[in-house]
Specification:
Blueprint (H helix, E strand, L loop, with lengths): L5 H6 L9 E6 L11 H7 L3 E7 L17 E2 L6 E4 L9 H4 L4 E5 L10 H14 L4 E4 L36 H12 L5 E4 L29 H13 L15 E4 L4 H10 L5 E8 L13 E8 L7 H15 L8 H8 L3 H7 L4 H6 L2 H12 L6
Parallel strand pairs: 1-2, 1-5, 2-4, 5-6, 6-7
Antiparallel strand pairs: 3-4, 8-10, 9-10
Helix pairs in contact: 4-5, 6-8, 7-8
């Protein structure tokens, strides 16, 4: 069965919002099946898109992670673009004034710390305050919607890289996540979801036959998203590189002071489900990331069974193996790691020598609590 995104479903019945003055929170990765930008397709269908809002990485999707984004003008349409990753991260009352609805159409990657989830939560809050409908045009979770992994975010670790009581891998689409956030904020009347047609929870992105456009510079392929929930912990939680802005972002990890052959042997001896490791060296080029211009020795991760692959566990096993190989060289980026993983206990347990499976055991209670709340929000079987 053909998978239609929420955008395509809306375009097939655009009359429902014709006559409304709408804003569009999106970027250029949110495209139609024939690879048109959503704003162009909406305007061609007679939808009155009055202004644009852009998340981290900008409306063009090319700004490096963490770099502030300026507001501006879309060159093709002349529409103003309000940045939500610059002077403010929330749509203001002034920005929303005069709109009849805010359309939200962003391609997510299925990991809590990818900031589009927080942008969604903030948009819901802003629209609720202004009594403005938020219409979410749903898109596939590229790493499917079945596997829940990682600890729940604890309140003291909430930040822009983590919002709400979500596990690291939450197995929902953006539309489902909008319903989850709205229920938590008790503003369900604010959110309307234009659901996809033909998508199932067991589908990875390549099974949808939809075109992939990178939603950010380090997400060049849909497969990259499968590595991201765990390998970002390695690359951003300490002084290793996870291949950011190389041809294999989040598919490799290394540092100039590591022995890649020994690291691959250590990781393969663990016999982790769905994963194998090979010695690998690479050279980061961007000064924005660790070890720019230096040859890094480490491993490339190969997924042998993506349904069995558990990226968070793999990432933590790899981080622990790196620390054990070079304890004097490893340096935590402690505050950021805690925000990414969602608690302070994980880092303390690793420092105390805890096994990763012992750490993962602590996730169980939170996962069961989350599943119960999540169930009321799912839209797809």
């Amino acid at each position: 069965m053909t998978v239609l995104t929420g955008l395509e479903v809306l375009l097939n019945d655009a009359a429902r919002i014709r006559g409304m003055r709408v804003g569009l929170l999106s970027n250029v990765a949110s495209i139609t099946r024939d690879a048109r930008r959503n704003v162009d397709a909406l305007l061609a269908a007679g939808v009155n898109v009055a202004l644009l809002f852009s998340p981290e990485h900008g409306f063009g999707g090319a700004v490096i992670a963490g770099d502030k984004v300026a507001s501006g003008i879309d060159a093709r349409t002349g529409l103003p673009i309000h940045s939500l990753y610059g002077a403010t991260k929330r749509p203001s009352a002034e920005m929303l004034r005069g709109l009849d609805a805010l359309l939200f159409d962003l391609q997510d990657v299925g990991a809590r710390f990818y900031t589009y989830t927080t942008t969604l939560a903030y948009a819901i809050e802003a629209c609720a305050e202004q009594r403005l409908p938020l219409i979410v045009l749903d898109r596939p979770n590229p790493i499917a919607g079945e596997v829940i992994e990682g600890p729940l975010l604890q309140a003291e670790c909430e930040s822009f890289v983590g919002h709400g009581a979500l596990p690291l891998r939450y197995a929902m689409t953006m539309g489902e996540l909008a319903r989850f956030y709205a229920a938590a904020k008790k503003c369900e009347q604010t959110v309307r979801v234009v659901a996809m047609q033909g998508w199932r929870r067991d589908m990875f992105f390549d099974e949808t036959a939809l075109p992939w456009a990178p939603p950010s510079p380090n997400m060049p392929h849909a497969q990259t998203a499968l590595f991201y929930p765990g390998m970002a912990l390695v690359g951003e939680g300490g002084n290793c590189s996870a291949g950011a802005l190389t041809p294999l972002p989040f598919e490799c990890a290394g540092a100039p002071w590591l022995d890649g052959d020994a690291l691959a042997a250590t990781m393969n001896a663990l016999d982790l489900a769905g994963a194998r490791f090979r010695p690998f060296h690479f050279t980061p080029t961007s000064q924005r990331y660790a070890h720019a211009g230096q040859t890094c020795f480490g491993v490339q991760v190969h997924v042998t069974d993506r349904k069995a692959f558990r990226p968070v566990r793999v990432g933590l096993h790899l981080l622990c193996a790196i620390r054990r190989q070079q304890p004097a060289r490893w340096i935590w980026n402690a505050a950021h790691f805690d925000l990414l993983i969602g608690n302070r206990e994980t880092r303390a347990m690793i420092d105390a020598g805890a096994d990763v499976e012992e750490i993962a055991h602590h996730w169980h209670t939170g996962a069961e609590e989350f599943k119960a709340r999540r169930q009321a929000c799912v839209l797809y079987g």
